[in-house]
Amino acid sequence: MTSDHDRETILRDVLDRWKAGVDAHEPERVAALFTEDAVFQGLRPYSVGRPGVAAYYESQPPGLTAAYRILETRAPAAGLILGYLAVDFSFPDRPTIQVNLSVLVRRIGQDWLIAHYQVSQLG
User: Fold this and answer.
1) Residue 32 phi/psi, 5° resolution?
2) Taking every pair of C-alpha atoms in the chain, what is the biggest distance, in angstroms?
3) What tens digit of pLDDT does each residue of 1-51 get?
4) Is residue 102 within 8 Å of 116, Cβ to Cβ?
5) How far is CA 10 from the centre of its chain?
6) Which of 81, 80, 84 is nearest to 71 (CA)?
7) 74 within 8 A of 91, measured Cβ to Cβ
8) 3: buried, middle or exposed (CB in 10 Å: 19+, 13-18, 0-12)?
9) β partners of residue 85
10) 3-class DSSP state for residue 105?
11) pLDDT of 80-90, one tens digit each?
12) What is the DSSP letter of 61?
């Protein structure tokens, strides 16, 4: 099993690349961080697979940025890490949206990819 520190390090690596792609408005770059069969739930109906992830981020306005904070990590099985995060999505022309995000990252070869992504907007 991976330690708390190792789980957080792995999640940060994946999420820092996700954030960089979101902040740069590069939807294909973001989608490449997901498994081919990833279940993706943003603030609209869910999709399965990288094309849905790319389409979701393509529809987001330029200037959108993401700031995240890892709240919890778990390793439910070998090669899987669950992360629970607080994320602020900021826009150039409207108020920031604060959400909670659950991600499940899966080890595939030497890479860690997002297999499940679900946003919850509380309040």
Assistant:
1) -65, -15
2) 44
3) 578 889 999 999 999 999 999 999 999 999 999 999 999 999 988 999 999
4) yes
5) 13
6) 84
7) no
8) exposed
9) 70, 101
10) strand
11) 999 999 999 99
12) P
Residue keyed to tokens 């979101």: 22
H-helix or E-strand containing 29?
A: helix 27-31
CA 78 and chain centroid, separation: 20
How many helices (DSSP H) and strands (DSSP E) are in the chain?
3, 6
Q: Provide the token pair at 2.
A: 């991976």
* Distance (Å) of CA 40 to CA 69, 83, 114, 116: 19, 15, 9, 6
Pairing of strands 97-108, 111-120: antiparallel
3-state secondary structure of 89: strand
**pLDDT tens column, 89-104:** 999 999 999 999 999 9
Token code pair at residue 48: 């399965």
Structure-token pair, residue 75: 């390793």
Write out the two tokens for 38: 């990833």
In 3D space, the residue among 50, 64, 52, 53 whose CA is nearest the CA of residue 22 turns out to be 64
